[in-house]
Structures are given as structure tokens and as C-alpha cells.
Design a protein that fits this description.
Strand order of the largest sheet: 1-2-3-4-10-7-8-9
Number of helices: 4
Shape: flat
Largest sheet: 8 strands, antiparallel
Distance between the termini: 82 Å
Radius of gyration: 48 Å
Organism: Serratia marcescens
Low-confidence stretches: none
Structural class: mainly beta
Strand content: 15-25%
Protein name: Prepilin cleavage protein
Number of strands: 22
Mean pLDDT: 85
Amino acid sequence: MASTVGQQMKQIGEAVNGYINIRYDKLSTLSNAAGTGTDPGPRTCSGSVCEITYQTLINEGLLPSAYTGTNANKSSYKIILKRDGTTPNYVINGLITTSTAWIEGGKTRYDLLGNAMQIAGIDSGMTRTTSNAFGYGGQWSETSANFNNITSAGQLAFRVGFNSALYSIYLRRDGTLPMTGNLNMGGQSVYNAQNITANGTTTTGILKTNAAATVGTTLNVAGVTTLRSDLNVYGNGQIYGNLNSSNTVSGKTVISRGDTYTQNWFRILGDGGLYFEKYGGRLTMLDDNTISAGESNLKTNSVLYATEISSGNINSAGTVTAERVDVVDYVWASRKISSNYVYSTGNLDADGQINANTFVYINGKANVGWGCSPNGLQGRTSEGAILSCVNGVWRGSTGSPVIRTASASAYRFPEAVASCAGSEKVVGGGGQCNTAEGYVWLTVSRPNGDNSWYAGCDTTKNITATITVYAICQ
């Protein structure tokens, strides 16, 4: 039933908001209506307050003619509308309450009122005292000093008019109701407007004008500007980004204060070339095969490539020095290759010894027991231990065995596992049991995987014993 009561309150609340919208002119002037004519009423106004009934809403066509004016809890409604503000911008606020409180068995049913409010929505509320009404979730409150239909605790209430959430959907055609929020046209158009004046920012998708457009000061365009005709600029053009053209950019003199880039050819027309203003050097083409630097030297700090350098040898009486030499095949040297850094993307083969005056770093990582090929490869573990490929299997160096231990105490059945470190493998182990009294037996002693040893004891009676497990690791 609470759900039905809430839905009924929301229905009459929406009807009252519609009534305020169509009869704002009468409510703002506090005009009475006797129940006949184009303003059927009934509406009784006194001071700054008007009262209407459910019959008023039926007469206006805002409620069905079969509406009884009584909710599912057998309570009628009292509707008070109050004029606030100053001329000419009066606003109408209102409060609807049930005439009687929701009481069952001598107890006010706030729980059922709360359920009804959940259905009625954010503008609903309830009276908690004889003089206060509180809105849904504490969103609003009213007092009996403003609305005399707050008479007892336990009434269901509903806020209407200017301050309500539901009333925000209305906009009066005569302009007497100012906007209290944003106007959302829902994707629809506005036609036949005369002048549109905005004090803030006008945001639009496409801005189209059928006549000349005048900009008072600066025109800022965040996106692309497309011109279907010529652009005449009588002053200077300042471009802070890139200037892109799908055709020819022509000018008498082009001066670039930064770098100049081209995605295609940089073509020089006529007999000119590249002239370096600061030093007077130049690059010109003398014929179809020759590029000349004139009297200047041609130097590079990197690699100088050519399709063909020489069909024979490159001979030098001294040293040929280069910061970088790229070779697509082999580098053969009968003596030394001297370099601060030698890098090869493939193999490095030597018919003799490879000598290092400091250390040799091996970056190939593997684990003992993994497969490998060919025999004789050298690698290392993640911890840095040296590995060798022996018979297709990575094996560690045969150093001295290390004994790892682990101890534990327990009631009758102590047990423990001693683990090898890093890439060590367990090659043997054992356990020792101790107790303060009686006998104790070593019941199990065995490998636990390939890098730990497990052992356990039994005292044969309910006493505490300790165990020490030994793992021989290599």
C-alpha cells in the first residue's frame, strides 16, 4: 500500500506543478477563482497564500475526472500555494500534505511513510513534528509558519513550485518565469529568433551565417578554419603553429627563423644552390654528375655513404680515423683492431685465444639441469654461478659440498626441511632427533625434490622432541 500512496502523491504533485505553470498569472496576483469560466478554480487566496483542491486540478484537466481525492490510506489532501519574491519576478512555491497522519495501532508508521517517499521521489517528505516537514534524504524542510497544512507528525508531504525538482521542467512562454538552470533543447532546433544576446560564451558545433559576420575584436578558432574563397589579409600574418598547404606556397622572399623541413625533394630552380650566409660557403651542381662545394672542405662527424667509393683499395699513408665504420660483411685484420667498443650483432670468432685484461661478463642465463647445445658453452645462473654445457645438459662447477640445516620442535612428531641455496642441488642428507626423556626414533629421512632434504621423528609417547635436518648441497 505504501507504494500506491507514494505514486498517488507524485501524481497529484505533478498535476499541481502543471497548474502553477498555466495559472502563474493568477497566482502571482493572488486572484480568487469561484469555479466557473476560463479560470474554473476553485482557488481561494488570502495574504500571500492561495489554496486549491483536487477538484481544481480535475477542472483544469490535470487529473482524470474519476479522481476521488483520497489516497489508498483513506486520507485526503490539502494543497497550499505561496507567492514569494518581488514584482515582477514573483515565484510560486507550494506544499501538499495528507490531511491525516499515517497512524496504525496507536503508532505513527514512519516506516511506511519512508517507503511511500521512495516511490514519490526527491520532492516528497514527511512531518516529524506538529510544526516541521522534512524532505527526502534531508534535501529540504518547511515549517508550519510558512504552510499551515503542517498540523501533526506522520503526514506525507510533497514540495511543488519554484523550489521543487519537478518544476524545473517548465518554461513560461510569456517570460514571467525566469530560468533557474540550463535550458536543454534535447537536440531540437530553435527557429525564427530575432536577436540572441549572450553575456557569456556561445558554444556551437557548426556556426553558419547567411550574411556578413562581424567580429568586434579578436577571432579565436580552436579547430580548423575552412575558407571557400580567397583570404585577404591587409596586415601581417602571425602563425604560432604549422602552415600546411596542399598546393604551392609562393612568395618573394621566404625567411625561416627555425628549421625548414620537407617530406619530398628540396628543389632549387635555375643555377643557384645552397649558400651559407655566415661563412660564405656553398653547394652547387656543376653538371649532371658533379656536386661542388667550391673552395670549401666537405666534412662529416658521422658516416659518409656513397653508392660507389672505389673499385679498388682505399690507401692511406697514415691512419684512417672514423668515429664509426659500418661493414655489411666481414672485418678482416692481420693484426689489431683498436676500439673503445666493439659490437657485433652476430657471432665473434677467433682462431686464437681471446684475452681480457679485466673481467669477462657472461649474460647468458640458465639453470642446472636445463638442456643446452653445443657442448662446451659457458653460461651462468641468475645468482652468477658459472655453468657449463656437458652432454647437452647445463651443469654447475664441482665445488666443495655445503651442509644446510633446519631445526624444529613439536609434540611427539617433529619434522623439518633443510633447503639448498640458489642453484645448489641436494646430493645427500639426514636427520637427528632429541628428547629430554625416553626414546625417540628417526622415522623418515629422504630427498624433498632436487634442492632440499626432509626428515621426521616419533617419540612413541606424548612428549616434546626436537629435530635437526641436514642437507648436503653442491
